[in-house]
Amino acid sequence: RFHLAGRNRLMALMSLKSLEASLPDQFMKIHRSYIVNLKAIEGSERNQIRIGEAKIPVANRYKSQFQDYTDRFRSF
User: Fold this and answer.
1) pLDDT band at residue 75 under the 50/70/90 scheme
2) How many CB atoms lie within 10 A of CB 61?
3) In degrees, to the nearest 5, what angle opens at C-alpha 40 toward C-alphas 13 and 74?
4) Which residues neighbour 29 within 8 Å (Cβ) at sequence distance 6 or greater?
């Protein structure tokens, strides 16, 4: 399922792996069930991010990649 701005949703018949390969760099897999638009993230705390009202877990497997991304923007 895709959750779009304005609470719209789409259903896709493709795997997350193939979707991830076709998306631009502004998207990152942060959990085996979630790929997020990095520009839409409003905050992060502990092992989760916040996009609007949604709190999405960041799995341990993807934590270092996500941390590298956030560290790049803290240095500016």
Assistant:
1) low
2) 11
3) 130
4) 16, 20, 35, 62
**Helix segments in the chain, DSSP class H:** 16-22, 60-74
Model-wide pTM > 0.85? no
Q: Find where tokens 């409003």 sit.
A: 42
**Cβ neighbours, 10 Å, residue 39:** 7
pLDDT tens, residue by residue, 6-46: 778 888 888 889 999 999 999 999 999 999 999 999 998 88
N- to C-terminal Cα separation, the chain? 34
